[in-house]
Structure formats: C-alpha cells, structure tokens
C-alpha cells in the first residue's frame, strides 16, 4: 500500500545549545507535489532540509520520509532521495559524464545500467554536448543542471533542492525552472527552499512561509496572496525624505469614505494599508488604479507610480514587516 504522504513532520524542532533553529513546526508534503519552504536567510529552511535528508538529528518531534523515520532508517531514506545542496559539490577533476557515473556507483548501481541512464540524464539536463568536458570548464548554470542530473541517477522518490538557483543569471534560472517543471510533471516529489518569491510562485503548488524557525503561513501561492494581501499594489515614490509624511496623508485620504471631491469611495478602492519602505511607499488596494486616480485628484504628485498585482513578497511584508532577502 503506497504511503499517503511523502513527508510528514509534527512538532519538528532543532536546537543548537540555547538557539532554536526550527521551533516545533508541523507540515506534510503529498506524493508528487511541488512543495516550498519560503523565508529569509536564517529562517530554518536549510536545517529542516537536513533533517529530512537524514543528515541532521532532530531535538524533538516526529518525522517520516517515504514512510520511514530518517533517524531510525537513515540509509534507506537517503537511498530514496535526491539532494541538491546550496553549493554545487561536483568533482571538478572529472568529466560531466564521469560525475554522474561515479555518483551512481555509490548507490551500487551496475555500470551497464548507469551508462544508459547517464546518457538519458545528460539529454534531460541539456548537457549531452558537454559530456566529455571537465566540470571546471562549465558555466554556473551548467554546473547546476549537472548537479540536478546527478541527483536523479538513483531515480529518487523525493528531490530536495536547497536554494536551487542562487547565483544564477535570469536565463540560467529559467532553463533550470524548465527542467524542474518536467520533473514535477513526471510525478517526482519536489521539496525546495528559496528566498526568491518569483521562484516560489513559479515552482510551488503549496508552500510554508517560515521565519525564525516558525511557520508564519501555509497554502498555495495564490491562496496566500488572497488571504494576506490585496489584489493589487500601488508603488509610489515621493522622495526618501518625504515618504513617511506622505504615508500618513495617504492613509487618511484613502481611508476616507467621502466621495464628493475625490471620486471612488474607500470601499470601492478595497484599500487596506500603506507600507513604508526606504525608497518607496506600497499602497495595498483592490483597485490600485482607482487609488492612484484618487491620489491625483487630491493634488498629490508622486515622482513615480507603478500599478502591479500582489506577490508573495507582499505577503511576507504583511506578515513580518520586512523583505525576504536579508
């Protein structure tokens, strides 16, 4: 009978002396799901991944991975996982093909089977033309794709990706995303950590927002935005020395229900609040365009304005009052 959940954690806790890195969190990852842990550096994401991967013990709580306890069945759990660490740990002295074959030998896989599997993985990672190249001659994006290809050599049930696109340029990120989309469609369970909000929106069907070792919110990207933000956001710049003063004025203006001289009422705007950032103001409203019209009608003239949809970054600002990238 198949295991219902790929991963289940209850009260998961990790302490280092007096410091609590992961503070009693509960979560489940369904089989075949793409699940994300979103949060700033130091939030406890990588520590959680290390406990899932059976390379760090937990201080309290319970956990099962593919139906097994990582602490009691470490080798069996690791055999079912593919792990993509934050930093590539490829063998620079070996060729691209040799990296995959040597890694497969650690799992006791027969060489004849590995030879065929390696060609399949090279094609998947778009590295067939680099099969004989030394790893040290690859670009950062190619090294990342090779790391993923290597992690798939044992045909893992679950693929753990810790900050998979850190340091990559936009083109390399999108190529990597495409490879991960293909894995997700094939039924591989993906668990990734990231502090890139656009990456979480693109790759994750469901995620938890973590900060200081605790879960701040959980749900799909669209659901989190719906529950913790407004439909749209208006970005305004008045100048760094005027932003705080203008924020108070905007709050009063957009909260007012008087429509006699300013057009749409506050209820029609769906106005929520104003967030003050060092370089700009964020006005949260159901209709940012209507809010901007009301602001212009009042005689206020921002230096720049931008209307956009809400994002996961806005969710995090609402929950913690600061950006994800520390």
From TrEMBL:
All copies of the ABC transporter domain together span 7-237
Keyword Transport included in the entry's annotation: yes
Key word Cell membrane present in the record?
yes
Under the heading InterPro entries, the entry gives: AAA+_ATPase, ABC_transporter-like_ATP-bd, ABC_transporter-like_CS, ABC_transporter_ATP-binding, P-loop_NTPase
Q: Which organism is it from?
A: Nesterenkonia jeotgali
Q: Name one GO molecular function term.
A: ATP binding
Recorded topology in the membrane: Peripheral membrane protein
Its Gene Ontology cellular component terms are: plasma membrane
Q: Where in the cell is it found?
A: Cell membrane
Arranged from A to Z, the UniProt key words for this protein are: Antibiotic resistance, ATP-binding, Cell membrane, Membrane, Nucleotide-binding, Translocase, Transport
Q: Which domain of life is it from?
A: Bacteria
Q: Which family does it belong to?
A: Belongs to the ABC transporter superfamily.
Q: Which SUPFAM superfamilies match?
A: P-loop containing nucleoside triphosphate hydrolases
Q: What is this protein called?
A: ABC transporter
Per the record, the GO terms for biological process are: response to antibiotic
Alphabetical list of Pfam families matching this protein:
ABC_tran
């Amino acid at each position: 009978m198949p295991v219902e959940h790929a991963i289940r954690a209850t009260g998961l806790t990790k302490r280092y002396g007096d410091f609590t890195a992961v503070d009693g969190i509960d979560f489940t990852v369904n089989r075949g799901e793409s699940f994300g842990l979103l949060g700033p550096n130091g939030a406890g994401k990588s520590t959680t991944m290390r406990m899932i991967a059976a390379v760090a013990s937990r201080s309290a709580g319970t956990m099962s991975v593919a139906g097994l306890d990582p602490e009691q069945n470490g080798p069996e759990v690791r055999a079912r996982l593919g792990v993509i660490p934050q930093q590539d740990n490829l063998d620079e002295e070996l060729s691209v093909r040799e990296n995959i074959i040597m890694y497969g030998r650690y799992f006791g896989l027969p060489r004849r089977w590995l030879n065929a599997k390696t060609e399949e993985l090279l094609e998947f990672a778009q590295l067939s033309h680099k099969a004989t190249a030394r790893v040290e001659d690859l670009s950062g994006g190619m090294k990342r794709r090779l790391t993923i290809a290597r992690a798939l050599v044992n045909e893992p049930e679950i693929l753990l990706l810790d900050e998979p696109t850190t340091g990559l340029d936009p083109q390399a990120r999108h190529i990597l995303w495409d490879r991960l989309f293909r894995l997700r469609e094939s039924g591989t369970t993906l668990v990734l950590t990231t502090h890139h909000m656009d990456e979480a929106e693109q790759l994750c069907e469901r995620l938890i927002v973590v900060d200081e070792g605790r879960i701040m919110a959980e749900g799909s990207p669209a659901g989190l935005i719906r529950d913790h933000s407004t439909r749209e956001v208006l970005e305004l710049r008045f100048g760094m020395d005027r932003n705080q003063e203008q924020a108070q004025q905007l709050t009063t203006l957009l909260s007012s229900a008087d429509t006699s001289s300013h057009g749409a009422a506050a209820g029609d705007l769906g106005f929520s609040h104003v967030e003050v950032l060092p370089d700009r103001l964020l006005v949260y409203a159901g209709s940012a365009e209507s809010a901007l019209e009301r602001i212009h009608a009042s005689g206020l003239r921002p230096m720049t304005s931008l209307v956009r949809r809400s994002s996961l970054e806005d969710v995090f600002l609402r929950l913690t009052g600061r950006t994800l990238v520390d």
